[in-house]
Amino acid sequence: MAHTLPSSDQSSDQDKWDSGGLECKGQLLIKIVMRNRLTALVVDGDTTCWVLEQELLHSYGVQTLGVDNSRDAVDLIASDAEFNLIIIEKILPVLNGLEVTRQICEIGVRCKMLEVTACSGESERQAFLAFGVDVFIEKPLDPEHLVPILRELDGQ
Amino acid sequence: MERNPMRRQLASMRKSLFDQGYLDEQFMELEQLLDDANPNFVEEVVTLYYRDSARLILNLDRALERRPLDFSKLDGLMHQFKGSSSSIGAKKVKAESTLFREYCKSGNAEGCMRTFQQLKKEYATLRKKLETYFQLARQIGPMESANRPK
């Protein structure tokens, strides 16, 4: 997603910055209308990421539950909690993201799974995909990657 | 009118944070995302980031004092730090994190230590700039409410 800052025209630049926003601000969050109320589980040990990923999902009307460690994630799934989407970070307290993914898939979960992590090597990416992750996204989670997934889940 | 010069100052401050490469477009997405819910939420998230990442910085400092260096552990810690930094749009901090991880992968101890020092500088500089920015934003907020026509 290419976003450019306001043009070189100084006076129009100033107005745009003064308005408390940017001309391109409205383009950053891709607007969609969801037909269904989706649910998502966010598994991330980093509080900042955990908060922001949930806020992004909320902005699209997705109901979220967040856990900050792998044990709670597995226990939740094992207790038959159902989600349309699970977002997992690679490095987690207790078990790593790959192991969590494996255990969740073994339980028989068949929802969309996203691995969202600071960049990793190709071998790790392939390992996650082999274990059942549907999409591998480099942090930060952004609308460009998220919206097509939400549309698909929403049957659009 | 007093309000406009302060708003222009705020806008100028904000523009320079992007122009000088301290922040990237992720910060803009953050602002747009959190505007309606709570006007101070961006500041709250940035405060949260600095609070939580302080622990990672401390752990990295300690890990870099050990001999021999455990590059795998260092990489893991920096992986977390990078993810967090990228989520608030901390561009220079993220760049140093990436470089640090490359040095970890190649087992370059000196590179790791040098890069970490630079990372801490960028981290501290960004913090000061954002504190100043948010302080001014908060001053403008209440002023706007006071001046709003009844």
TrEMBL record, chain A:
One Pfam family of this chain:
Response_reg
In terms of SMART domains, this protein maps to: REC (SM00448)
Q: Which residues form the Response regulatory domain?
A: 39-154
Q: What is this protein called?
A: Response regulatory domain-containing protein
The cross-references to PANTHER family, in alphabetical order and at most eight, read:
HISTIDINE KINASE RESPONSE REGULATOR AND TRANSCRIPTION FACTOR RR-A-TYPE FAMILY-RELATED (PTHR43228:SF17), TWO-COMPONENT RESPONSE REGULATOR (PTHR43228)
Please provide the Gene Ontology terms (biological process) for this protein: phosphorelay signal transduction system
Automatic annotation (TrEMBL), chain B:
Q: Which PANTHER family match?
A: HISTIDINE-CONTAINING PHOSPHOTRANSFER PROTEIN 4, PHOSPHORELAY INTERMEDIATE PROTEIN YPD1
Cellular localisation: Cytoplasm, Cytosol; Nucleus
InterPro entries in the cross-refs: AHP1-5/YPD1, HPT_dom_sf, Sig_transdc_His_kin_Hpt_dom
Keywords in alphabetical order = Coiled coil, Cytokinin signaling pathway, Phosphoprotein, Two-component regulatory system
Residues annotated as coiled-coil are: 109-136
One Gene Ontology term from the biological process aspect of the record: cytokinin-activated signaling pathway
- What does the record give under GO molecular function? histidine phosphotransfer kinase activity; protein histidine kinase binding
Report domain HPt positions.
Answer: 38-133
Q: What taxonomic ancestry is recorded? A: Eukaryota, Viridiplantae, Streptophyta, Embryophyta, Tracheophyta
Domain remarks in the entry?
Histidine-containing phosphotransfer domain (HPt) contains an active histidine that mediates the phosphotransfer.
The protein's predominant localisation is cytoplasm
- UniProt name for this protein: Histidine-containing phosphotransfer protein
- Which positions bear Phosphohistidine? H79
Q: Name one GO cellular component term.
A: nucleus
Q: What is the recorded function of this protein according to its Swiss-Prot or TrEMBL entry? A: Functions as a two-component phosphorelay mediators between cytokinin sensor histidine kinases and response regulators (B-type ARRs). Plays an important role in propagating cytokinin signal transduction.
